Amino acid sequence: MLRILMRDGRAALFGAAVLVLAPLASAQESDTTKDKSNDELRALLQQALDELHDLHGRVDELEGQKAAPKSDDDDLEAQLQALLGEDEAEPAPQSPPRTVFPSAYNPRIGVFMDAVTNFGNEKEKLGTGDSFSLRETEIDLSLPLSPFAEGVLVYSIEDQGNGEFGSTIEEGYASITLADLIGVDTPARVRVGRFRLPFGRNNRLHTHDLPQVDRAAPVTYQFGEEGISGNGLLLETPLASGDAGTTSLELAAVNGDVFTGSEGLLGEAASDAGLSITSDAPLGVARVSHFVSFDPLHDLEVGATYLSGVNGHTIVTDAGTDIVPRAAGLDATVRMRDDESGQGSWLFQGELVRTNFDFGSPAAAGFPTGNEATSGWSLTAQRQIGPASYVGVRTGASDVLASTDKVHEQSAYWSWYADEFFRVRVQGQHLSVADFGADESVWRGLVQFTWNFGAHLPHPYWVNR
Q1: Closest CA to 247 of 209, 174, 285, 300
Q2: The model's pTM
Q3: pLDDT of amino acid 394
Q4: What is the crossing angle of helices 38-67 and 2-30, to 10°?
């Protein structure tokens, strides 16, 4: 076949030369303005024929090389088979291909920024509250780690006043699907790391996800403005599911230092009394919830939570005394929509929290002793009045942990979402702070601007989503 192709190639080259030179010769003979002799044309044709002759020689040389017989010795694989034998000639086992997730190099990243303007008589009455605060900047990262695990990091930078900022890891955990990890048929998931404790509904929300500017009274005045997060393990699993709804269980085991930080009310009270508190003992949290959807536009969730130290040394003071924390909570959330647009939708939420801390023997002047029980409650009603506008009211009251104060609060607010990336909220609030009969009346106006960029989840109280 190669010989035929080369022979045809020589004919093609010769024909091409004739086709190229013939018009040139014709043009030269017919052009009376140019004085070209027949000798010059013959010289040109002879030069072309000589070049074709050289090409013929090169083609013949190549044909001779291709005609040489191919030796079997050139087959390297055949030689190896002969040397090794059939038993040893099997290919070496190969490791399975490594699965690489595209997002391993490009995690989902979201940034939330929350600024608040505070005006009123709070600073005059209570000595707290900045006029303007870039309250929190939160950086959220998440990505699949493997077929059975996802990694999450929530890094928070908080305004501490006087132009100073502090940073903390609010959450950082691996969420593991047990069915894919150990090969059993179970819907359970486990979080390993740091996470917000599954206590009620309000405590679980990040600041930018709250339905109001500030956190509800039971959490704020018994746990702290930021709520409580812990380091440990969290198991999440449905217990039963059917036409009557879904019942779920959450179990967490965390370090007891969820209450010892300076941002928590217990840590703040200890610091004011000149005490240092630490914890290396575990703390348990259990929550059972039931969700039922009456139809696509109406649903209800109720939950019960219990938190307790697992031994008598959960929290230890540097004075040698022990503190054992216990808390219980009930919560209910109702969502109702008139149609799929969401306009006219209602959200109702209520939460009750009761704590009982055993402070033991006296540790320092001004620090609680014995058993101290506190309780608080909160009710919220919110209505969607437009495609991106919500109005709501909230009322509640709570004892203050490690204090004799009791706070009553009433708030009214309006939220407007320009889109999923920018929100404005205006809230008016009245606080009544009572201490042994003395009553401080505090009024404040709050204007909140929240914006985000990057990937993020829908707002949890957008009931039309």
Answers
A1: 300
A2: 0.75
A3: 98
A4: 170
Query: Splitting the chain (465 residues) into consecutive groups of 10 residues, what average pLDDT does each group show?
Result: 45 45 45 54 69 68 57 56 55 56 70 93 72 93 89 94 90 93 88 96 93 95 93 96 94 92 85 88 95 92 95 84 94 88 86 94 87 96 92 97 93 94 96 77 94 75 48
Cβ partners under 8 Å of residue 366, min gap 6: 272, 273
Only one residue has tokens 């969502």, namely 335
Per-residue model confidence (pLDDT) at position 24: 42
Token pair in block for residue 273: 């009394």
Structure tokens at 27: 């043009």
d(CA 166, CA 174): 24
Please spell the DSSP secondary structure of 379-426, one letter per residue.
EEEEEEEETTEEEEEEEEEEEPTTSS-EEEEEEEEEEEEEETTEEEEE
CATH number of 109-454: 2.40.160.10
C-alpha 199/C-alpha 303 separation (Å) is: 9
Number of H helices, E strands in the chain: 7, 19
Which of 39, 45, 53, 59 is closest to 17 using CA atoms? 45
- Quick count: other Cβ atoms within 10 Å of Cβ 120? 17
Under 8 Å CB-to-CB from 83, ≥6 apart: which residues? Answer: none
Contact 195, 189 (CB under 8 A): no
Q: Decide: 282 and 258 in contact? Cβ < 8 Å.
A: no
Residue written as token pair 């939950």:
303
- Two structure tokens written together for 259: 């209450």
* Tokens describing residue 223: 């746990």
Which tokens is 270 given?
Answer: 């200890």
Q: Which residues contact 90 (CB under 8 A, 6 or more apart)?
A: none
The SS3 of residue 431 is strand
